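Researcher: I'd like a structural prediction for the single chain below. Treat it as a standalone chain; there are no partners to consider.
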Amino acid sequence: RLLDADDNEIASAKPFPFYNYGYDVGVVAFYLEPDEAPTWKSSLSVQIIGNPLIEWVGDPPVTSTNSMTWNTGTTEEIQKLVSAKIIYLATQLEHAWSIEMTAVAGSMAILSDTGASYFLRVVPHLTEVAPYVLGQYTFTPEYPEGKPSEDTYANTLIEALDGTIFDLSGPARSLQTSPGVLAAGIYYPLVVAFFILLLSKKKLNKGTMFLVWPFIIAGSFIGVPLIVTIVLAFISFVSTTWVIYKGTN
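Model: Treating it as a single chain, here is the predicted structure.
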């Protein structure tokens, strides 16, 4: 039980009998909502009472302590602090119980599957207050200067066309679709049509092959996926080489 200076109960918790039916060391944790939290550094005590459901000779034993450690910091700092404390306690339990309670992920100690199953039961909101012990890492990546505003090559190129004659955002809105879909809908049929034209001609003017290249290049600037542009460019390169050096019948 967590008690205030007047011995009024603020919170209570029941130990989880995880090992040896509970007749051993263990961990108990309290969680208080902000509006329930006691005054900062006020006089508090923790009281441990023997299970009242067990028959005792006399009253159940009671042990109390008012030794408290108060910590403050940002959310991330407190998460790391609580995580470190839980890993410490898990290590102590590991030695006491001879059960693997911790593991290593990369270079960081985390809870093992057994340790996680235990601490998830005894520490309320563990995933929020100590995400690091479960291997949940969150960080803000650092990008080099000049990072595009979006994370795709196509979106970067589309932004470069805003306000030009190649800007398809207006027609796309009229058709209730995205500029990328509209661009692909125009691009693919044109490229396919040119290849069909090239394959169907018995006597092909060599210069006609070069008409494919503007469409290949344009595709990369109107939002067609880069990998598609590369593949079609390679096919066009091979076809152009064949036309120039081998000719047609």
